[in-house]
Design a protein that fits this description.
The chain has 202 residues and is mainly alpha-helical. Helices cover 54% and strands 9% of the residues.
Amino acid sequence: MSYYDIDAILADAQKVPCTFELDVPGLGFVDGNAGGDIKRGMRTTLPLWLGELLAVQRLGNSAIVNLDLPETLSPRVLNALKADPKSVDMRALAQHFYGLAARVLDLFEEEEIVDILTEVGQSTGASRDGLQRGSRLTLGVGQTFKKRAAEIADHAHNPRGALGEGAEFLRGLDEMERQLFRSAHDSAKAMRIWLGELKKKS
């Protein structure tokens, strides 16, 4: 993603849970306690970009914070994605779910999350050890997205489905999926217009 990509900026701005590993004087405003101190072991949520910076920053032998997995990628969500990715309301989890998942997978080496989001082995026939972590991410957030993309395309090409029972599914799309829906809908509309003009000429 580009440095100026607004979707990447918004994905990095999503909050993740953190645990402070050190006492930090005067930083209480981070947790709504202006002028107070942050105590060791205190849990709070920080934007991903700030949590990452504080997690890699070392003071002595300890990092300032320890990043925890966000609720967006909790076992409950992962089980729902395993069962049926189309039934999960991605927007309720995170507006930029796929961007957040990719960033979290860059930071954490959570094999279970990688397996669920990529389904390596089942979908590609490749062994998990044979793939580098970067290529697993590229496959990526992919397999969950791929299963939902067919449903998105169906709703984009069938206007009645988008207005009827599919409306609930469409409300649950994250931003990347919404862009896919718009592109598929606009291309189907342009094709219908072109075919109509072609019939008029003949």
